């Protein structure tokens, strides 16, 4: 498809807990577009995610990327190998891993609900239509995409999680326990070399969705892929795997976000 001209840049979103910085991209022109929220991973906001937002916007959507760590500041981590690729989390020093995990632990279902509500309020003043919306999330963001769909099912009808973390856990509010709240469609991309995609975890999630007819669940399991495979600047990037995911995701958006502008 021919890609439209885009308008893209930094945004500030007012929340009860302060200003949430972020990035948004959309087609130029006056048309109102369906909303897609792109949820970041543990590394924070960066150009890599902004490029993905522009790709989504090029298909006719208003894509916003919020900084989920805004309560603690503009936090971003970057570690690169000699070839210039972002390294995988497990290669980091243990102390740094724990520091990054600490930021994630402070993000609860309640903080996500607050942040998504603020994003929806912000979008009322943007060229965003009020119809069905979608999400895409990586790693930590995959879990946040699920939560958005569970907390705001009347709005989010297309949920995509790529190498999502803690979709299945012992917690009472584990995403897999609340699939009955979701509507529309859910798509997950999994990597074979990822502890968060162990067979028993994928089976638990599939079983959870199978019990509910109001939401359709699809997934792909990418053999020989690693956690982080979907991010193009990563040392484990798997182009073929993630392009298969994007085909599924854009098809899902096409079905569920019916009033798209593109």
How would you characterize this protein structure?
The protein has 262 residues and is α/β, with parallel strands linked by helices. The chain starts with 5 loop residues before the first strand and ends in a 6-residue tail after the last helix. The chain has a single domain, classed as Rossmann fold. It has an 8-stranded mixed sheet with strand order 1-2-4-3-5-6-7-8, with helices on both faces.
Task: Give a quick precis of the structure.
This protein is α/β, with parallel strands linked by helices and 262 residues long. It has helices at residues 47-57, 94-105, 109-123, 140-151, 199-210, 239-256, and strands at 6-15, 18-27, 35-39, 62-66, 133-138, 156-162, 184-193, 215-226. Helix 3 packs across helix 4.
Number of helices: 6
Which sequence of strands runs across the widest sheet? 1-2-4-3-5-6-7-8
| CATH homologous superfamily identity | Alpha/Beta hydrolase fold, catalytic domain
Distance N terminus to C terminus?
Answer: 9 Å
CATH architecture tag: 3-Layer(aba) Sandwich
User: Overall pLDDT, averaged?
Assistant: 96
CATH topology: Rossmann fold
The run of helices and strands is EEEHEHHEHEEHEH
Proportion of helical residues:
25-40%
Shape: globular
Proportion of residues in β-strands: 15-25%
Briefly note the structural class of the backbone.
alpha/beta
Runs in which pLDDT lies below 50 for 5 or more consecutive residues are: none
Q: Count structural domains.
A: 1
Radius of gyration: 17 Å
């Amino acid at each position: 498809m021919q890609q439209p001209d885009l308008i893209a840049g930094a945004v500030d979103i007012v929340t009860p807990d302060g200003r949430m910085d972020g990035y948004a991209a959309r087609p130029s022109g006056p048309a109102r577009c369906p909303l897609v929220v792109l949820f970041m991973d543990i590394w924070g906001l960066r150009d890599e995610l902004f490029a993905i937002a522009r790709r989504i916007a090029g298909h006719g959507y208003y894509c916003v990327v919020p900084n989920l760590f805004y309560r603690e500041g503009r936090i971003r981590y970057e570690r690169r190998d000699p070839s210039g690729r972002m390294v995988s989390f497990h290669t980091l020093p243990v102390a740094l891993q724990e520091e990054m995990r600490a930021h994630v632990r402070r993000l609860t279902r309640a903080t996500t609900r607050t942040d998504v509500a603020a994003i929806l309020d912000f979008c009322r003043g943007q060229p965003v239509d009020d119809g069905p919306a979608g999400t895409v999330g990586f790693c930590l963001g995959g879990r946040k995409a699920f939560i958005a769909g569970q907390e705001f099912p009347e709005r989010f009808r297309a949920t995509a999680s790529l190498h999502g973390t803690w979709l299945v856990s012992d917690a009472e509010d584990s995403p897999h326990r609340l699939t009955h709240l979701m509507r529309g469609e859910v798509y997950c991309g999994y990597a074979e070399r990822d502890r968060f995609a162990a067979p028993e975890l994928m089976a638990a999630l599939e079983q959870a969705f199978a019990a509910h007819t109001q939401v359709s669940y699809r997934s792909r399991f990418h053999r020989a892929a690693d956690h982080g495979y979907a991010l193009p600047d990563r040392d484990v990037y798997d182009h073929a795997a993630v392009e298969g995911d994007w085909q599924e995701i854009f098809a899902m958006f096409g079905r569920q976000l019916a009033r798209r502008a593109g």
